[in-house]
Amino acid sequence: MKKKLVALLMSAVMASALLAGCGTAKDAETEQETVEDAAETETEAGSEDADAAAEDANAEAESEESNESNESADAQAGEAVVLKCVCDLTPHSEILNAAADLLSEKGIELDIVSTTWDATWNDMLVDGEIDFAYFMHVPAMESIEEEMGATLYSMGGIHVEPYACFSDKYASKDELPENAVIAIPNDSSNEYRALKVLEAEGFIKLNPDMTAIDASVNQIDEYIIPIEIVEMDQANIIPSAADFDAYFVNVNRALEADIDTTAYLMREGEDSEYANIITVTEANKDNEAIKTLVSVLQSDEVKKFIEENFNGAVIPAK
């Protein structure tokens, strides 16, 4: 009897142990599955976070590229330099306009403030209201410096307009009558040119010490051929041309007045040193845009335009 009781007790204990063992295995399995599920969830969450971070980085990069593109466009727009100037209508403004596309390629635009000359042009240049002037030659520049106490600079010669004498009455200088009345400009530099032509053509003999600064009829030492010279403002010469037997003017003014510039009585030689220049003040003598402007105006393309459009009345500067 005792032996049966002992056997029953041992069976119960073993069954209990067996049941306990099964529960532990199941618990362990469940715990393992839970850990794996958590790890998988964490991995998925980490992947999603990484994807989100990558998307944010791409968006930021695209934004930076867009900003850089906009900044580049703004920079390019900001590269255009506007230069303000005054110049004679013909041929100066025509030459500048012909060079507009070439200048645009260099990032330069021109604002031509005026093409009708008056004495305020000199003030505008000296006072800095414009960046450059394109209507004078070196002797004229030096004369303005003397008159205004200013310091000006030539950035380079662009074209030459041989100074000429025209007549509404006579076809050649040999037809001029004795004591012919000839009008010449009263600004010293252009008067110098007119007097030098008259001397070269045998009408007068000048004081050898005369300069472009002090040129006037008072510098005439001798009248070889009797003539009467009238000094007057150049702007008034062509309007009153009928009052004279002959008159001297800049070729550009003759072109503006539709005068046949090939029908001159006498004029400077083709080697005239009176090239029309780009003139600036101290403030712009080192201006890179001005230097580029001069380079373009002295280019073969612009020289070709000058040679083909003014019938020899205007020639490129050497």
TrEMBL record:
User: Where is composition skewed (Acidic residues) in this entry?
Assistant: 30-68
> What membrane topology does the UniProt entry give?
Lipid-anchor
Keyword Membrane (UniProt): yes
Q: What's the chief localization of this chain? A: membrane
Where it sits in the cell: the answer is: Membrane
Q: Where is the signal peptide?
A: 1-20
Residue runs in coiled coils? none
Matching entries from SUPFAM superfamilies are given as: Periplasmic binding protein-like II
Domain of life assignment: Bacteria
The UniProt entry, under Pfam families, shows:
Lipoprotein_9 (PF03180)
Ranges where the record places region Disordered: 28-75
Looking at the keywords, is Methyltransferase present?
no
Print the keywords alphabetically. Lipoprotein, Membrane, Palmitate, Signal
Which InterPro entries does the UniProt record give? Lipoprotein_NlpA
Q: Which PROSITE patterns match?
A: PROKAR_LIPOPROTEIN
GO cellular-component term (any): membrane
What family does this chain come from, according to its entry? Belongs to the NlpA lipoprotein family.
Q: What is this protein called?
A: Metal ABC transporter substrate-binding protein
Q: Species name for this entry?
A: Parablautia intestinalis
